[in-house]
Design a protein that fits this description.
The protein is α+β, with helices and mostly antiparallel strands. It is 24% helix and 26% strand. The protein is elongated and about 100 Å long. Bound molecules: zinc ion (2 copies).
């Protein structure tokens, strides 16, 4: 079979942009994906042809060589069949949503072993639990080995024999062109055996659903986006070992505190006299401890007071904690009593309270 021009394969012009090439490849790849066209040799060839074309045309250097020298510029063997000159792994990263099938992924990238049973779930954590650690109960659905057939898929008491389609390998491998595509055997669905009678507890799937309840330990200091991995708490497909459970943490917001790394932040309001004269106020730390906080005389609106080692504990060092930063807001009285008004008026007669407002150099701002 003569090789078709790469531009023709993707149906784009020689002056097309990378974006156009990408779109065109996606279209061809989706239409001819082997999973959607099982047993269709023509579609499979189109798919491979398009993938090779995209590999070259999406790489500006390869594309340039191809434009100048044709296939010889991008294929070390010089002919139409490169044995190992193409690396498609970047295409799989880019188009992961098209390439759902593991078997195809393996045949492209050279055998990545996967247990396939991993599960990913979101884990919502209370702010305080995420800071100090603790334990939390989770419930989720997973697959476990069918207890009736022990994952064999065969009804107990009935015989099984080696699958004739795949000779027991579970895969049908088609070698053509420059790489081979392995697909799951359509007869035995990958088990390598033909059943006389399928297990009726699991309808021949080998697995059953389980509602799993687990109490898990939350490490202290955990943040949104972090993943907690629980080994072998994933799906147990047929009689394979169980995959892992990946819990992606999402921490809820707190009413009063927020956090940046290991430091905690909050805001308190004090009265204008507390700010002017200085005072000691009561504050509640995140861990529930009631503390006395010294507000120095002359504290201004927006001043940040630091409470050392009252932040988030670090996971690695037992007694290491970040700081707690408290921003001060000053509340002015909304309504003045007669008495208060008299006092303020007296204050306003004092020279230091009756200064003309002037511009403040930026360098004087704290
Ligand atoms: Zn079963
Ligand atoms: Zn088979």
């Amino acid at each position: 079979m003569a090789k078709r021009n790469y531009y023709e394969v993707l149906g784009v012009s020689e002056s097309s942009s990378l974006d156009e090439i990408k779109k065109a490849y996606r279209k061809v790849a989706v239409a001819n994906h082997p999973d959607r066209n099982p047993g269709n040799k023509e579609a499979e060839d189109r798919f491979k042809e398009a993938t090779e074309a995209y590999d070259v045309l999406s790489d500006s250097e390869k594309r340039q060589r191809y434009d100048r020298f044709g296939f010889a510029g991008v294929d070390s063997s010089g002919g139409g069949r490169a044995s190992s000159g193409f690396d498609f792994s970047h295409i799989f990263r880019e188009f992961g949503d098209i390439f759902g099938s593991e078997s195809i992924f393996e045949s492209f990238t050279g055998g990545r072993s996967s247990r396939g049973g991993d599960i990913q779930r979101e884990l919502r954590l209370d702010f305080v639990v995420a800071v100090f650690g603790g334990s939390q109960e989770i419930r989720y659905q997973r697959l476990i080995t069918c207890r009736t057939c022990k994952g064999t898929c065969s009804m107990p008491g009935y015989s099984t024999k080696t699958c004739r389609t795949c000779a027991g390998s579970g895969q049908v491998r088609q070698n053509s062109g420059f790489f081979s595509i392995a697909t799951v055997c359509p007869t035995c669905r990958g088990d390598g055996v033909e059943l006389e009678r399928a297990c009726n507890a699991c309808a021949g799937r080998g697995s059953e659903e389980q509602t799993r309840k687990l109490r898990i330990t939350i490490p202290k200091g955990v943040e949104s986006g972090k993943t907690i991995v629980l080994a072998e708490e994933g799906n147990q497909i047929g009689n394979n070992a169980a995959g892992d459970l990946y819990l992606v943490v999402r921490v809820s917001q707190h009413k009063y505190f927020f956090r940046k790394g290991y430091d905690l932040y909050s805001v308190i309001a004090i009265s204008v006299t507390q700010a002017v004269l200085g005072s000691e106020v009561t504050v509640d730390a995140l861990d529930g401890e009631t503390m006395r906080l010294k507000v120095p005389a002359g504290t201004y609106q927006g001043k940040v007071l630091r409470v050392r080692s009252k932040g988030v504990p670090t996971a690695s060092f037992a007694n290491n904690r970040g700081n707690w930063y408290i921003t001060i807001q000053i509340r002015l009285p909304k309504k003045l009593s007669k008495q208060a008004q008299q006092h303020w008026q007296e204050l306003s007669k004092l020279p230091e309270y009756n200064e003309t407002i002037e511009s403040i150099p930026l360098s004087d701002l704290e």
